[in-house]
Amino acid sequence: MALITKAARGTQDVLPSQSHNNRFLESTLLEIADEFGFKEIRTPVFEHTELFTRSVGDTTDVVQKEMYTFTDKGGRSITLRPEGTAGAARAFLEHGLYNEPLPQKVCYLTSCYRYEKPQAGRLREFHQFGVECFGTASPAADAEVISLANEIFGFLGVEDIHLEINSIGCPECRKKYHSALKAYFESKKDRLCSTCLERLEKNPMRILDCKNPSCKEVASEAPVVIDYLCDDCREHFESVQAYLDEMMIPYSINPQIVRGLDYYTRTVFEFVSDSIGAQGTVCGGGRYDGLIEELGGSHVPSLGFGMGIERLMLLLESQGIKLPEAKRPELYIAPIGEKASLTAARLSQALRQSGVAVQFDIVGRSVKAQMKYANKLGARFTVVLGDDDIAKGKIKVKNMDTGEVTEMDLEEFDEEFLEMSLQQSAQDLQDAVSNGDNIDLSAFLGGLM
Ligand code: ATP
Ligand code: MG
Predict the structure, then answer these.
(1) Max CA pair span of the chain
(2) Which of 273, 275, 255 is nearest to 320 (CA)?
(3) Which of ligand 1's atoms lies nearest the C-alpha of 279?
(4) Structurally, how many domains does the chain consist of?
């Protein structure tokens, strides 16, 4: 086969054999966030470019090198979102959500676009689960947002992950820090890349986040911002730690964390794993007390995090964490011949209306081929339906797990089958409970409704 093209570099397809994992993960994330009071917000995949240059910051890697920006047919500069916070913050302002009771807690699952060098855990189209909490300066909010990410990893059973926190202060304490940083990097100018030389003038802190090996080495010995915090910022940071201690959330302080986006202030944090190679940061976030003002609003201190879905998936795989299996068809009906096929269609229709996951032959294959197919699908029960059975008004249902065969009345089939299938599911539930298996009850019951 000569394909005319393949998927664009740095993009991934999620195939039907995998998508139930994504679906499970996504609904789990949204459900946990919902328990914490974060409601879903959906914003467009593209925005006016200035939203990102202003919020993410024009000296960041994201804005300087990674954005998918184009001019649309109306001559506007448009950018595919590289992250989720800016769009959520714009929507918060545009729809006057600051007039609603604060804090406004939102969450989202979005695709993001960054023109990066693709490698394991680094894509050009990736997905983020993010939360934002608008309108609170309290360190309790920092702890709550961190505890939500922590709860997600805990719920999924992830072990090899640790939380690192830092404070990068406010614009006030950063003034002193910037001059110290500038003086330090001035003395090492010859070892900085050309982008960092420009950053040295405009925003020396950005050098700390440069991925260039030589810059990284120089940065590793640079003064750290935590030594320059003003009293308020220090107090805030100490209080965040007191909350985390109280909530028994383990963490370490990493004075090197600065995060790659300009809008951060005070608390920044990362959940890092050693199991998934160089791109070990699965979740990153922090406070952005000045962002809403930067976008034209009033002072609304806020914070949030972004969690990379692909990295989370890699982490689950690397730790051998099994997600629930895809739903199997409850019943496969294998008709022999055209008349039986019509009956199979009618029975399927009735059962589907009762919420049973039924499949029947829509190819016109031999019974042998159909049974092979039903096996591959993992159907729980099968029925072979011949003209004889239809004439007699009796059909035989086979339990594929036990081999047991039950005869049912054709005219009463939907009710009789439904009853048997409910009984079987109740039995499965009981077995699972006595085995001490971890059961997702809502998914289980959903399968029965
Ligand atoms: P990194 O330092 O790895 O480039 P970042 O600081 O650019 O990450 P953020 O902008 O804070 O990352 O995004 C939050 C999360 O989104 C990251 O922790 C990561 O899990 C995920 N992420 C970011 N960029 C990518 C990418 N190119 N491919 C896959 N996931 C990504
Ligand atoms: Mg990055």
Answers:
(1) 94
(2) 275
(3) 3
(4) 2
